[in-house]
Give the backbone structure.
Amino acid sequence: MSLAWTAIRFGTLLVYLFMFAPVAVVMLLSFNANQFGSFPMEGLSLRWFVALIENDAIVRAFQTSLVLGALTSVISTTMGVLAALAMVRYDFPGKRLISTALIAPILVPEVVLAVALLLFLRALDVPRSFFLLLMGHVIFTLPFVVLVVQARLVGIRRDYEEAALSLGANAFQTFREITLPLMLPAVLAGMLFSFTISFDDITGTLFWKPGGVETVPTQIFAMLRNSISPEINALGTVMVVFTVALPLLGAALARRVSARMTTGR
Amino acid sequence: MDQTKRLERLLERYRNGDIDRRSFLGLLGAAGLGAGLAGGPMTLLARQARAADPDQVRFDGWGGVVSEAFREHAFEPYTEKTGIPVVDGTFGGADEYLARVKASQPGEFNIAHLSGVFDYARYHGLELSTTLNEDNIPNLKLVIEALMNAFRPITGGALSAVPYDYGTTGIAYNRKHVSDDEAKAQGAALLVNPDFKGKIGGWGEWKTRIWYAALQTGQNPNGIEDMDAVWDKLREHRDLLLKYWGSGAELMSLLAEEEIYVTEAWSGRVKALQEQGHDIGYLDPPGGLAWQECLFVIKGSPMEACEELLNFMLEPAVSIAVAEGQNYPPALDPTKVDLGEVVPTLPAFDPTGTLESLNFFDPTYWNTNEQEWSKTFGRVQKGR
Amino acid sequence: MSASGSLATGFDRRPWLLLSPALVSVALLLVVPAMFIVVYSFWLRTATGADQVTFSLDNWREVLTDPFYRDILIQTLRIAAISTITCALVGYIPAYYIAYAPTRHKTLLLVLLMLPFWVSYIIRTMSWINILGVSGAVNGVMLWAGIIDEPIQMLYNEVTVVLGLVHFLLPFMILNIYVSLDGIDRSLTDAARSLGCTGWQAFREVTLPLSVPGLAAGSLLCFVLGAGTYITPMVLGGPGDAMFANLVFEAIVTQLDWPLGSALSLLLLALLSALVLVYSRFLGIDQIAKSFR
């Protein structure tokens, strides 16, 4: 087993290397003194980070993307968890049709969904708004949440819930005390999915964004004609550092705090 | 309080200036979707909201340096003077933008930084054009005549847009592998030179590719007689090709990383590469292609506000800042305006202000063939 | 499905209550707009690019009979299938590791998977040129090590399209498998081991079958997303490496032929929906796996 385990560990390492290769390129290039990235780099510089902070447009787009992603992930995960519960825990007519409907948003090519929704809104004479953009993101992140939560729920044994119910807990208590903790990893995965997909979406956002609203991807898209400024690479680096360094730091702090508590006792 | 009452109160607050337009429309949209109600009061209110607020101008253009230059040099002074806010948006390509405009309500989009005469005619064909009152745009007198004359016949002598900048789509080559003399001797044929098989790039855009294929078959691009020869040439090019590129950023990285040695290329992008020290040559071959960009006013826009903004955007200082940002010369006539030191060094720049040496798409000709050619090219590109 | 039979006597409102937010949103923002697409597919495009209201079967005739569309469709399904299988094979390993490794950093490992998404899709897809390009890192290392004398041309073919897709889809696969592995009761594998199974047998007989829901969900996601992609072939493909969504995008955006684009997308939609129906039946059958417990 230990040989097999070594192989698994090595395989995992390779996969992570593959996943990070483009990220590493972007991070390295953000320290490049030159505007056009090519290796070997001719000099190191922090100028793109300075430029990033001073670039209102990118900073604003970044804030928009964060807010949009956070709202999307909360709404979409809530809807998705409820729907997944219904799909796994109950029997009802038309179930297969509904499960297709729930996954449908990723079956339609995004550009079609984008145009179709605009046509519908034009027919209603409803103007584009941030709320619409948000709901658009919710719609096509929903299938991710439903799929991942459903897969987890199928694996959770019904006995636990029934035991809780038979011990006198009501349905909500059972959900809160038993089901939710058991499916928590899937819920978190769903939130993570919906946030990142929303954060990274281009096609739908291009069509649905109201005037004056730009997300990071749409900013990048508009820069493509002339050249993507390396500030975008710097933004990638900042994002990565925050998402990796902060959890690491948090974990380290937590360990220290708990260590102190044990020693203090 | 029922839904309609609530919305009416919302509208009232909005008119009093308690909430700004964006959040008002947002709330309206939310209310409408939340209630799931179609037509009726919603339609009415949305319409009122837009009519009650003619004094905002929506501009859409390229992002990055271009939008920064516009914002700083044109939009802010304009808003300061007139009190009319400019809402600016961006797009990644002219086609994508047109698709959005086609799906929008009239008046939602106002001014756009569009490419060339071809799109001008396309918008006119889709009944999206307007008639500018040229007296309201004094800076129009500084603009190169020839650029405006390209638009006038399409819209019956009037203008629906002001020209803004121009450039060429010539041939870029890696000087390590192609000398200036070789490039000059071969001209357009360089792009189908079998010696560079697997090292050739091309813009995946039907008009430009057909233009160059016409040159390669010895025909006048604005009056092709043997279309079959052109399609064959396009297939020949495709089989020698490494990659169709789709954006300036992609073009630059393909050249800079030496993935490709020759390609057709936008003048300003090659200039940017040269400035960064890459040894890339640029050639406008005989019969090479030039294009212009314009600021187009879309049907349903508040005309006077748009005309005034156009005048701001045509100010020499603004034009020059944008030109230096994207490396394409402005549409201002160099015999009438001092364009500073950088602009005259830009590729495609014409000091005479006549543009007689440049060839543009004949809009009528290309628009007539658009439907068939663009579709056929899409197939050739994918291996047919 | 399972044990809810006892709860579901007569009409049960609870599932509908749970489903209503999602269903209302999908209905309003997807199903109703999709009706527009159906209507559009019977219209025609005018010479200028406007839509002509009519009833015509021309688009459908073209979409269903033209071998060009058929070929691209087959190519699309092939590329999506290859990418999905690659993801499943490659993705199982890290999913297994994260689920079973004695590490406190599970959450971190999972979050790390989504890390590439912080760098925008276009940027990270384009950055492969710095890794696999003729002057990229891989060629650089091989030249330096003396393995090759000339840089190898690796980019812009079907392999790089698959590579780009796998890079994009892998996190979805890994997370789905992980979630399913993590939900498996450990006592089951222990029991299998104590009954004399080798580690491999325990995996094959217990763990693998129980992780099938995750594998299936991940595969469905990967296949569907892979089949609907258009940016990856645009950035990493050579001439001829187009996928079906590129045709849809071109019809709608470049050619402004919305009627034809509608018909094309409905065709893709129909195929993928059929796949989902198969999947939901498959997941239903998979309930047998639960009798293992």
User: Anything to note?
Assistant: The mean pLDDT of chain A is 87. The longest helix of chain A spans residues 56-89. The radius of gyration of chain A is 23 Å. Chain A touches chain C through 103 residues (CB under 8 Å).
